[in-house]
Amino acid sequence: MLNVGVLGAGHLGKIHLRLLNESQKYNLVGFYDPDVINGKKVEAEFGYTFFDNINKLIDAVDVVDIVTPTLSHFDCAKKAMEKGKHVFIEKPITNTLQEAEELLHLEKKQQVKGQVGHVERFNPAFMAVKENINNPMFIETHRLAEFNPRGTDVPVVLDLMIHDIDAILSVVKSKVKQINASGVSVISNSPDIANARIEFENGCVANLTASRISLKNMRKSRFFQKDAYIAVDFLEKKVEVVKMKDAPEKPGDFDMILQNAEGIKKQIYFENPDIAVNNAILDELETFADAINNNTVPVVTLEQGTQALKVALEVIASFQRK
């Protein structure tokens, strides 16, 4: 078992602490939080060992799980990696691209592994259909959330939209060509609602909308490709796969047949892939343990986390130019 320590005992940090404590792949050594009062409260309530010194915790573990505010991700990860520790970093990887690139350099120099907490990669609905998403040419995503003061220290692009940016980059095998975006600040000092149009060199276009001032929660993505339409509901963990194939010469009574202007007939059919029940946060943490133990590539590398951050920052820069 890998000895692990958690940095940060806020809302998400407590979830990580609970799951790591239950995991068969980790031994939870303890946690650090700069708020001593909160740290002692969490220790008293749950029994996890509280370290009042970040360096002492890092020295005592093999893996450091960083669940602190984004602004401190870089400093925490740098401390851990310089001591030769593997790091799991909640998304976004860092606050700036320069910080992320420095961590990439440290990862190679120190021969350690890193993973970024883009948890939607482990959403069972997305996992069930990812292999069916082949060369999509149009993608539409909506990630809407009711207002919550937690997370408003960063723009909605880094808070919410970056989930969809990462998922899209994982299935579109092409470089970003152009980005156009708009953002509006309604309640916060930073934008609360944003829309981005991302064009790729291969012709794919992705239209993303994210809001944290919605009246209802929604996390849906739609992928359109040749002969297929794939919809993923990340919130409800449901999928819809609609495909087309050449129509048979003698269609059945219940076959759905379409004919275009050229007279070509296609049959519409539906697929219902199995969706496994899982805990996405536990899965991302445990696959990182597997990558360390087996010396394999983590599912969401620091490089991929950096690319998602780069696109997110370009989205923000686009609407700041307007």
Features of the shown structure:
single chain; 322 residues; alpha/beta; Rossmann fold; Dihydrodipicolinate Reductase, domain 2; 6-stranded parallel sheet; 9 helices; globular
How many β strands by DSSP? 15
Give the terminus-to-terminus CA distance.
51 Å
The largest pleated sheet is described as: 9 strands, mixed
Q: How large, in whole angstroms, is the Cα Rg?
A: 22 Å
The CATH topology of the largest domain corresponds to: Dihydrodipicolinate Reductase, domain 2
Beta fraction of the residues? 25-35%
User: What is the CATH first-level class name of the largest domain?
Assistant: Alpha Beta
How many structural units, i.e. domains?
A: 2
CATH superfamily label of the largest domain: Dihydrodipicolinate Reductase, domain 2
Helix content: 25-40%
Shape: globular
Overall residue-averaged pLDDT value: 93
Identify the CATH architecture of the largest domain: 2-Layer Sandwich
Order of strands, main sheet, comes to 8-9-10-7-11-12-13-15-14
* Structural class by sheet pairing and helices: alpha/beta
Number of helices: 9
Pfam families: GFO_IDH_MocA, GFO_IDH_MocA_C3
Domain Gfo/Idh/MocA-like oxidoreductase N-terminal: 2-118
Domain GFO/IDH/MocA-like oxidoreductase: 156-216
InterPro entries: Gfo/Idh/MocA-like_OxRdtase_N (IPR000683), Gfo/Idh/MocA_Oxidoreductases (IPR051450), GFO_IDH_MocA-like_dom (IPR055170), NAD(P)-bd_dom_sf (IPR036291)
Polypeptide structure, described:
GO terms for molecular function: nucleotide binding. Residues 156-216 form the GFO/IDH/MocA-like oxidoreductase domain. There is one protein chain. The protein is of the alpha/beta class and 322 residues long. It has 2 domains: 2-112, NAD(P)-binding Rossmann-like Domain (Rossmann fold, 3-Layer(aba) Sandwich), CATH 3.40.50; 121-276 and 310-320, 2-Layer Sandwich (Dihydrodipicolinate Reductase, domain 2), CATH 3.30.360.10. The chain contains 9 helices and 15 strands. The strands form 2 sheets. A 9-stranded mixed β-sheet has the order 8-9-10-7-11-12-13-15-14. A 6-stranded parallel β-sheet has the order 3-2-1-4-5-6, sandwiched between helices. Strand 11 and strand 12 form a beta hairpin. Helix 5 (97-110) packs antiparallel against helix 9 (302-320). The longest helix has 19 residues, at 302-320.
